[in-house]
Amino acid sequence: MDISKRHFLTSCGTLLAGISIYTVAKELAQTEAELGVDQTQTIKYAMVHDENLCIGCNACEQACREVNDVPVGVSRVVIKRTGPFGEYPDQSYRFSRLSCQHCENAPCVTVCPTGAAYIDSETGIVGVNADMCVGCQYCIAACPYQVRFINPVTKAADKCDFCKETRLKQGKQPACVEACPTHALVFGNIRDPDSELVKTLKTKPTYRAKMDLGTRPKLFHVSTINREIVL
Ligand code: SF4
Ligand code: SF4
Ligand code: SF4
């Protein structure tokens, strides 16, 4: 590749990253204004899954299962494989993370008749109070990301909570993040400009799933380079 072409592509990448960061900042600001979110809130947790670094090893799924006591047959996080893309022998796969997006405008919370589904005002984490859950499954039907399930042991709605009780309260990272051997997962406070999460968002173009629904998800994805765009 000649230098001028490489320079052009590099400039395009920088521009895309800039647009992405600007869009994210603008959208989050709009969200807070529109949804009446407390803008003085100092912690708002989010996650990035870098599909270029993910090797589909499923260590994150297993760590989540063990730490959060998730029964066999259900899962809080799934790494979905699609592909192969390209022609043999230059083929590649895409590994995408499916888990709760911790929406700022969460349909699961809106429809819950008992208040069991809630957004934690201190962290922005969308949680489930199992003691208040009556198992009506309204939240499961309302979630556009299809990440909720009824826990066969507790009989309550269940999903990823960023290890709020099992890890964050001890000052630790979520189990999936710690288990990932390639550092494909970055978790942190989107309010903290010095956090690794914000630095990642500032340097890598990201997308969020189903943004057109207005759910304002907080799970960001760095898109795989060698694949079709599948959102
Ligand atoms: S992804 Fe689904 S379960 Fe998670 S906050 Fe959004 S609507 Fe609720
Ligand atoms: S299943 Fe539980 S958390 Fe979901 S809407 Fe019903 S009561 Fe709320
Ligand atoms: S542990 Fe990391 S590399 Fe392995 S599947 Fe999960 S996100 Fe991908």
UniProtKB/TrEMBL annotation:
Transmembrane helix among keywords: no
Keywords, ordered alphabetically: 4Fe-4S, Iron, Iron-sulfur, Metal-binding, Repeat
Keyword Transferase: no
Domain of life where this protein originates: Bacteria
InterPro entries in the cross-refs: 4Fe4S_Fe-S-bd (IPR017896), 4Fe4S_Fe_S_CS (IPR017900), ET_IronSulfur_Cluster-Binding (IPR050954)
Gene Ontology molecular functions: 4 iron, 4 sulfur cluster binding; metal ion binding
Domain 4Fe-4S ferredoxin-type per the UniProt entry, residue ranges: 45-75, 91-122, 124-153
UniProt cross-references to Gene3D superfamilies, sorted A to Z: 3.30.70.20
Protein name listed in UniProt: Formate-dependent nitrite reductase complex Fe-S centers
Organism name: Shewanella benthica KT99
